[in-house]
Amino acid sequence: RATLVLRNMVNEGYISAEDMGEALAASTKTTPADYVPATQYAVDWIIEQLPLLTKEQGQSLVVETTIDTVLQLKAEASLRKRLADNGKKLAVAEGAVVTLDATGGVKALVGGRSYKKSQFNRAVKAKRQPGSAFKPFVYLAAIENGYRPESIEVDEPIRIGNWTPENYKQQYLGPVTLERAFALSINTVAARLGQAVTPEAVANVARRLGITSPLGSDATLSLGTSEVTPLELTSAYAPFANGGFAVEPYVVTRISTKDGKLLYQRQGDGLGQVVSESDLGAMNILFRAVVRYGTATKADFGNLDIGGKTGTSQDYRDAWFVGFTPYYVTGVWMGNDDNSPTKRVTGGSLPALVWKDVMEEAHVGLEPRILPGRMSVPEPEPTVVADTGDGLYGDDEPAIEQEMVEPVPRKKKKRGLFARIFGLNENDGEPRRRIRRIGKDGEIY
């Protein structure tokens, strides 16, 4: 059947005879029996959008997208490998990965570990509790109301109505800065802040940044009890990476007919500024701390300026890491379709490792940049024992410090049919420069 389809594509002028030979040769390679490229999740999503973008459906269309083929395959491979190596012993079966550029363009989208076994696109359609990955909206609401990273809150038992949020093993640190509380994902502080600014204010911030799913109105919202999709949550982090501008995720940039008639051309890059420069600087101090000494040190690599937030829902049912640089934001979710608990999978463990795999690939050859915002980069605080679990929707174990490994240059290779269809750039095969070091003073070395 593959030969017949490819021969028809040659006859219609879509590909050359040489392309057909490459495709047939590739199809003979040994792959797992359940393997269908996870790119199919992105293809399905693209097809779903076409009727919304053009009325002309009864003809062959040329659809140009934002998908980066190399990054897409890396995201797929990393998710499959991490789950294959650890899924059984940690009782975690599924995951999703989304990578966006600064404008909201989808560079990679993986909706599950096996498209053949399940065509359900978890990246776009699975609504899961984000746990502590929702806390950035709480802290931004607080910062907009006068709090700063150095502001002091007390980590101690708290009761809000009938709800008593707890830290792991009921351990409390006493007075802590907001930076430290965010880095270590302390539940009681987030709950206090949520009450101080009101759950309504938290929900308004989340919606302003891009959360579209229904949000609760009670105190537990601060600890991530309202469900969101991976694509939705990842896009809501984009303003922290791009200078404070909200984005609407997109994947199709242009649609035309085979003979070149333009049917659709994407216009515009965003939805306007939603975070001020000073508040953005304060937030990025918090995000940096998570990766430098908090719950996501496993995500750190290449001396890049990285920010992010882990999240783990009750009973370890959902594990998240959403992180970013000035270039890209990537969100990773892991869990089970039946919502059963995992064996202590946290956002700072497997999701952070998948995130690192994907973002290392994304940044090969890119010049280092500093995260946006006016405030200066603080000295990291000493590493302390973090909140390693929760009584309700809490938090992640501090990851073990990893050796920093620079990405190696990729050898130039010929663009194949798959790469051309998904828009691999001509220079993507060139050896890329190594990431240089960013000093604590913000200088690049």
Structural account:
This protein has a single domain, classed as DD-peptidase/beta-lactamase superfamily (Beta-lactamase, 3-Layer(aba) Sandwich). It contains 13 helices and 10 strands. Helix 6 crosses helix 9 (199-209). Strands 3-2-10-9-8 form a 5-stranded antiparallel β-sheet, with helices on both faces. Strands 1-6-7 form a 3-stranded antiparallel β-sheet, covered by helices on one side. A two-stranded antiparallel sheet has the order 4-5. The protein starts with a helix and ends in a 24-residue tail after the last helix. A hairpin with a 3-residue loop joins strand 9 (318-324) and strand 10. The chain has 445 residues and is an alpha+beta fold. The model is unreliable at 27-31, 376-380, 382-394 and 397-445 (pLDDT under 50).
Q: Note the main sheet.
A: 5 strands, antiparallel
Principal-axes geometry comes out as globular
Low-confidence stretches: 27-31, 376-380, 382-394, 397-445
Helix content: 25-40%
Total count of strands:
10
Radius of gyration based on Cα positions:
22 Å
Strand content: 5-15%
Written as H for each helix and E for each strand, in order along the chain, the element string is HHHEHEEHHEEHHHHEEHEEEHH
CATH class categorisation? Alpha Beta
Major beta sheet, strand line-up: 3-2-10-9-8
* Overall mean confidence score, pLDDT: 83
User: Span from first to last CA?
Assistant: 55 Å
If you consult CATH, what is the topology? Beta-lactamase
